[in-house]
Amino acid sequence: MAGFTLSSLACGLAPGTGFLIGARALQGLCGSVLIPQGFALVKVVFPPEHLRRALIPFGPIMGLATVAGPILAGWLLHLNLFGSQWRSIFLVNVPIGLAALILGQSFGPWAAPSPSASPGPSSPGASAAPPCTSASASPPPD
């Protein structure tokens, strides 16, 4: 999430085409690891009996994002906020990413370890898991 957010900022502030292409490639790379990490995080956080219900939102959310993304991008281009032109389609990810990082660190499975749970991410790559998934997902009551 941090990599995607920072690369989105780099895209939005790109001084030239070459830099934009490099930052966009990095953004794509960082974004490509978010989905499998989201599935893995849900699998770790939820007990097997609740896993099916926990995975249900993934399909509709990804479908909505596929439809809403181009519409939102066109709307942002039309608004031309602060004269930012095309940059706003990248800069919109920055506050969302920052909020997701803060929520993930506050409410993720590693925020309040329990004696029966695993201690949390143990490798540097594990901290890049999509915090918004863990922040918005909680197991249903028994």
Structure in words:
The chain is mainly alpha-helical and 142 residues long. It has one domain (2-108). It has eight helices and no strands. The chain has helices at 2-12, 17-32, 34-45, 48-55, 58-79, 88-91, 93-107, 131-136. α1 (2-12) runs antiparallel to α2 (17-32) and α1 runs antiparallel to α7. The longest helix has 22 residues, at 58-79. Residues 122-142 have low confidence and may be disordered.
Mean pLDDT: 81
> How would you characterize the largest beta sheet?
none
Task: Quote the beta fraction.
Answer: under 5%
Number of helices: 8
SS-based class: mainly alpha
Q: How many domains?
A: 1
User: What is the percent of helical residues?
Assistant: 55-70%
Order of helices and strands: HHHHHHHH
Shape: elongated
Tell me the radius of gyration: 17 Å
Low-confidence stretches: 122-142
Task: Write a compact overview of the structure shown.
Residues 123-142 have a biased composition (Low complexity). By secondary structure, the chain is mainly α. Helices cover 66% and strands 0% of the residues.
Main attributes of the structure:
mainly alpha, 0% strand, 142 residues, disordered C terminus, single chain
Question: Helices and strands in order, then pairings?
Answer:
Blueprint: H1 2-12, H2 17-32, H3 34-45, H4 48-55, H5 58-79, H6 88-91, H7 93-107, H8 131-136
Helix pairs in contact: 1-2, 1-7
Main location: membrane
Domain Major facilitator superfamily (MFS) profile: 1-142
Organism: Nonomuraea typhae
